[in-house]
Write a structure and sequence with these properties.
Length: 178
Amino acid sequence: SVELDPTNTRGLQAEMFALSFAGDTDAALSVGKAALALNPNDSELMGEYGYRLALAGDWPTGCPLVSEARDRNPGPLGYYETALALCAYIEADYARAVTWLKKTGMPDNPNYHLIAAAVFAESGDTAAAAAEAAWLRRNAPDVAANPEVVVTRRIARQEDVERLLASLRKAGLSGTPG
């Protein structure tokens, strides 16, 4: 679609996703930046590009974009709120991360439960962290057995990966290397 219409923001957003999940973070961010420049009022694109920036390690730039997208867009709030919980986790503001998680409605999403397990482990709520780990073992056994695959596929900066995996071990997900 980008070849047919290089200004189509949905096409560029899809290209950004594809490049991101293929591990070409720099190219994904370049496409996302160009797409947002074409349509700076597209809140969905803003949130997705912001989240990609954050996951690439540029939390200070990406997280405010996710927050702005959430403020502008009535949905999907659960997605934005889970991203903002991860942003707060990275800032070591675990109370704020818990608040974001409690606002979200993504009970069937393994990524939500993975983030929640890490957040609750760091916030000191060991019962909630254990409950999240148990949910993952029951409902997403592949994720529970090897969360490193999910984490490294989504988060680019090694120090963020290591920190999240340490929190997941703390939550009782023994599939994380240690």
